[in-house]
């Protein structure tokens, strides 16, 4: 086709030949620049975190009406709905909350967030920091970019939710303080809390309190009929009423009794009522809801086969809240199958919370633990705990080998080699598993610490390194590394102590606790030298040199890096030498000694090139450092080409930190060349990426927009 107003006689044409995919620019003379913009990244999926709607939900008409009224009132008044469902354990608060949430979810177009706060689960409640981290990740914030400080987490959460229509269900809360940071900052959102406590602090602040009591007799019988079948209940309505009366009207107790009836079609209602009546010593206690649950759980427990009963008891010793099928079947000292776990699920003794994920109701966990304490001797219980914990350790070790294959490790002797340990095809799947099991792995460390299993405690701290390296979790890392130091000392393993002191010093440096970091790092060096561990001492001194850089002591850092390079050459530690040379090159660049920096970086390239398996991430980091050196030498064309090469490599690897550094270098180069528009775009990209990963450099980049600053960037060592 021809341009409008001009034909071929003009000597100009607008003919497009061949196949074209995407956009095309056709022009004769262009005044100004042409900018090409990449399509925006795919937005995160809308969170749909509600557990499934309860299948046998019954009645609760008054409570549902009150929740609907609360929503209507708040929408009319233009304020956020906030309701607290309060009542005794096992009364059906979660079922009521989920049923209402599913009926109302279409009104909340930006999704639903859910967390079990574990306030009455028999273990430590979920902290607001952990819950906020879960919610931020669900809203699209990558794990490594979640802030460490709860105030920063809460501020980011409020910003992300300010204009959203979200339904937030906070299950099993312990206190008002646990709930407050998790409320979205939007008048179009709703917060629904369940708790055994009344949470009067929230009520005083405007939350509506909805009391949830036991089911009435007719409602409880209807629930029984839904599970067992109407015919069997109609055959003996009086005894059906007696049965639900013995259950105290608690839905969880009614469901357990009903499941037992349903699984035995030949039984009459009279049969189970007679069996309950035999518990004469406990009948007087059925007026207390907790004890009616105890009676019903005992009845269901006696119906289990010996192996299923042992599984039930010992699973209750699991350190965390949720567990997978493989962990469940590893708990016994004999082969078992997932069918046993499903037997527990069918009996409503364990609940399924996702594909191959399970958990106990909190009262059932207490019941099962009591059974373990009364029926299993201490050695049997200890073996069960150890088998579960070692299963997690074996899985984390497999992930660690995939993600960080080059690092030093200490051998561990398993009580029995765990079966069904996950296998990982790539680092992404390995990191995803570590993230999914993070809370369980940390809980395992706490349990074995309490038992004084110090070698195992240290191993569980050590094996979390790849997760902390890539996904940060600085608050968890501080806790785990401190535990690892103490465990190594109690274990009496000096090598382990030196290594964990180094790790603790590194994370203290990262979060700005520089004095504490120096104390730990110098202790690490001293311990390593005492046991003549040259490699460990060198690694600790490298961390100390990075601390010097963080504190602005560049000349001191350069001297230490140079000495460490000689040490690593002597040790034949190629990867450690490569990492040291990167840091040396960057520190020399900061001092203006560019030729020396480039020599160090060239040698670093050679070291990484020969590694097996390869280390593409650190190879790309060398290129970033080379670009910084060219920029410092004012070789702007070469700095541009090198920084773009680094940007391409790090983009392919998904490293936002490296991408941000590359954009920053390109921005500085463009500024020096007088290209303000190009510089501004790279500054914006760098600021966005640093902000996304929660880097402290974001503030500096914001200040540097249009301001030249010759302060060197601190080199960072990735392990």
Report on the structure:
The protein is mainly alpha-helical. It has 4 domains: 151 residues, Rossmann fold (3-Layer(aba) Sandwich), CATH 3.40.50.300; 86 residues, no CATH class; 116 residues, no CATH class; 153 residues, Tetratricopeptide repeat domain (Serine Threonine Protein Phosphatase 5, Tetratricopeptide repeat), CATH 1.25.40. Helix content is 60%, strand content 5%. The protein is built from 34 helices and 8 strands. The chain has a 5-stranded parallel beta sheet with strand order 2-3-4-1-5, with helices on both faces. Strands 6-8-7 form a 3-stranded antiparallel beta sheet. Helix 30 runs antiparallel to helix 31, helix 31 runs antiparallel to helix 32 and helix 32 runs antiparallel to helix 33. The N terminus and C terminus are likely disordered. This is ATP/maltotriose-dependent transcriptional regulator MalT. Pfam families: TPR_12 (PF13424). InterPro entries: P-loop_NTPase, TPR-like_helical_dom_sf, TPR_rpt. It comes from Saccharothrix carnea.
Q: Kindly report the average pLDDT value.
A: 86
**CATH topological fold name of the largest domain:** Serine Threonine Protein Phosphatase 5, Tetratricopeptide repeat
Tell me, briefly, the overall form. globular
Strand order within the widest beta sheet:
2-3-4-1-5
How many H/I helical runs? Answer: 34
Q: Which regions contain 5 or more consecutive residues with pLDDT less than 50?
A: 1-12, 19-23, 279-288, 707-719
Q: For this structure, what is the CATH homologous superfamily of the largest domain?
A: Tetratricopeptide repeat domain
Radius of gyration from the alpha-carbon trace, in angstroms? 31 Å
Protein name: ATP/maltotriose-dependent transcriptional regulator MalT
Pfam family, one: TPR_12
InterPro entries: P-loop_NTPase, TPR-like_helical_dom_sf, TPR_rpt
Region (Disordered): 700-719
């Amino acid at each position: 086709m021809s341009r409008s107003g001009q034909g071929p006689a003009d000597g100009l044409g607008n003919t497009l030949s061949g196949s074209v995919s995407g956009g095309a620019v056709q022009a004769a003379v262009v005044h100004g620049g042409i900018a090409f913009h990449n399509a925006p990244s795919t937005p995160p999926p809308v969170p749909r975190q509600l557990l499934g709607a309860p299948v046998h939900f019954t009645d609760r008409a008054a409570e549902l009406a009150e929740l609907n009224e609360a929503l209507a009132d708040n929408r009319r008044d233009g304020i956020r709905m906030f309701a607290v469902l309060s009542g005794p354990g096992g009364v059906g608060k979660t079922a009521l909350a989920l049923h209402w949430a599913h009926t109302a979810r279409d009104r909340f177009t930006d999704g639903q967030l859910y967390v079990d706060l574990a306030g009455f689960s028999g273990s430590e409640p979920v902290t607001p920091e952990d819950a906020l981290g879960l919610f931020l990740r669900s809203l699209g914030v990558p794990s490594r970019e979640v802030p460490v400080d709860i105030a920063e987490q809460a501020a980011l959460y409020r910003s992300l939710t300010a204009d959203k229509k979200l339904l937030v269900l906070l299950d099993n809360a312990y206190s008002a303080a646990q709930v407050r940071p998790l409320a979205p900052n939007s008048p179009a959102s709703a917060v629904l809390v369940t708790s055994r406590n009344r949470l009067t602090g929230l009520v005083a602040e405007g939350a509506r309190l909805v009391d949830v009591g036991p089911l009435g007799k007719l409602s409880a019988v209807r629930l029984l009929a839904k599970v067992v079948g109407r015919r069997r209940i109609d055959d003996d309505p009086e005894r059906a009423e007696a049965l639900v009366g013995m259950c105290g009207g608690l839905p969880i107790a009614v469901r357990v009794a009903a499941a037992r009836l349903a699984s035995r079609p030949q039984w009459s209602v009279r049969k189970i009522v007679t069996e309950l009546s035999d518990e004469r010593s406990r009948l007087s206690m059925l007026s207390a809801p907790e004890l009616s649950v105890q009676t019903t759980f005992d009845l269901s427990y006696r119906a289990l086969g010996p192996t299923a009963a042992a599984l039930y008891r010992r699973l209750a010793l699991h350190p965390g809240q949720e567990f997978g099928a493989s962990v469940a079947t590893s708990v016994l000292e004999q082969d078992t199958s997932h069918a046993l776990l499903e037997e527990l699920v069918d009996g409503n003794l364990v609940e399924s919370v996702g594909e191959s994920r399970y958990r106990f109701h909190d009262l059932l966990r207490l019941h099962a633990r009591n059974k373990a304490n009364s029926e299993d001797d201490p050695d049997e219980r200890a073996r069960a705990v150890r088998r579960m914990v070692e299963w997690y350790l074996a899985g984390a070790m497999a992930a660690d080998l995939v993600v960080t294959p080059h690092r030093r490790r200490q051998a561990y002797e398993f009580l029995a080699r765990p079966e069904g340990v996950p296998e990982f095809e790539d680092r992404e799947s390995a990191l995803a598993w570590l993230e999914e099991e993070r809370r369980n792995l940390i809980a395992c460390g706490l349990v074995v610490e309490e038992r004084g299993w110090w070698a195992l405690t240290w191993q569980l701290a050590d094996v979390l390194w790849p997760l902390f390296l890539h996904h940060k979790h600085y608050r968890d890392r501080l806790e785990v590394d401190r535990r690892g130091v103490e465990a190594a000392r109690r274990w009496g393993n000096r090598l382990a102590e030196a290594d964990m002191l180094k790790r603790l010093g590194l994370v203290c440096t990262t979060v700005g606790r520089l004095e504490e970091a120096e104390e730990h790092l110098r202790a690490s060096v001293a311990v390593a030298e005492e046991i003549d561990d040259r490699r460990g001492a060198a690694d600790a001194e490298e961390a100390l040199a990075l601390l010097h850089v963080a504190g602005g002591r560049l000349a001191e850092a350069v001297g230490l890096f140079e000495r460490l390079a000689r040490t690593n050459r002597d040790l034949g530690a190629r990867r450690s030498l490569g990492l040291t040379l990167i840091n040396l090159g960057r520190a020399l660049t900061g001092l203006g000694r560019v030729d020396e920096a480039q020599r160090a970086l060239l040698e670093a390239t050679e070291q990484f090139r020969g590694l097996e398996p390869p280390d593409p991430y650190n190879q790309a980091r060398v290129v970033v450092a080379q670009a910084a050196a060219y920029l410092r030498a004012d070789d702007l064309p070469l700095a541009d080409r090198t920084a773009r090469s680094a940007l391409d490599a790090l983009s392919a690897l998904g490293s936002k930190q490296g991408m941000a550094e590359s954009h920053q270098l390109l921005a500085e180069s463009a500024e020096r060349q007088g290209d303000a528009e190009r510089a501004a775009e790279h500054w914006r990209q760098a600021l966005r990426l640093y902000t996304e990963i929660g880097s402290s450099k974001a503030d500096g980049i914001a200040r540097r927009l249009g301001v030249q600053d010759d302060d060197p960037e601190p080199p960072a060592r990735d392990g």
